Amino acid sequence: MPLRFFTATRTGEIQSRLTNDVGGVQGVVINTATTIVSNLSTVLSTIIAMAFISPLLTLISLGLHPFFLWITYKVGTIRRTTSKGTQQSMAWSPPPSLLLLPTNRMFQDHGNQDPHDEPILQEGTHNSWNTVKRSRRYRH
């Protein structure tokens, strides 16, 4: 961070930010460590119970485990590629000129339509743009 931040910001505010950031990181680390230990103990106790019940089935299931990890890796790779393509195609937004093209709704006037009317966009109050019609016959 630039030195100007520390000279322009009050000491108490910097200490408060630092305390909150350290507390947040500490909470994440503790929760992650607790979850890892809990999951490892569950896996080890399950493997021990499986070996006690049927050693042959335990060896078969542990032998097939790398195969299923490989399948999971391949599916994840395909999913990431597909998601990246979808995000890139959805990220395209039309230029503003396409958004301002007139539609039939702009010209609907309950049967009192003037063929010389043209839409003129005017900045509004509650919407970002209001459509106003101006007839050519009243212009000079």
Describe this entry's structure for a reader.
The protein contains five helices and two strands; from the N terminus they run αααααββ. It has 140 residues and is mainly alpha-helical. Helix 2 runs antiparallel to helix 3 (55-90). The two termini are 60 Å apart.
Uncertain spans: 121-140
Separation of termini?
60 Å
Structural class: mainly alpha
What order do the SSEs take from the amino end to the carboxyl end, as H and E? Answer: HHHHHEE
Q: Report the average pLDDT across residues.
A: 75
User: Could you describe the largest sheet, including whether it forms a barrel?
Assistant: 2 strands, antiparallel
- Count of helical regions: 5
Gross morphology: flat
Rg estimate, integer Å = 33 Å
Number of strands: 2
| Tally of separate domains | 2
Order of strands across the biggest sheet? 1-2
Helix content range: 55-70%
Strand content: 5-15%
How do you describe this structure in short?
The protein is mainly alpha-helical. The protein is 66% helix and 9% strand.
Write the layout of secondary structure elements.
Blueprint: H1 3-8, H2 11-53, H3 55-90, H4 96-99, H5 104-107, E1 118-123, E2 129-134
Antiparallel strand pairs: 1-2
Helix pairs in contact: 2-3
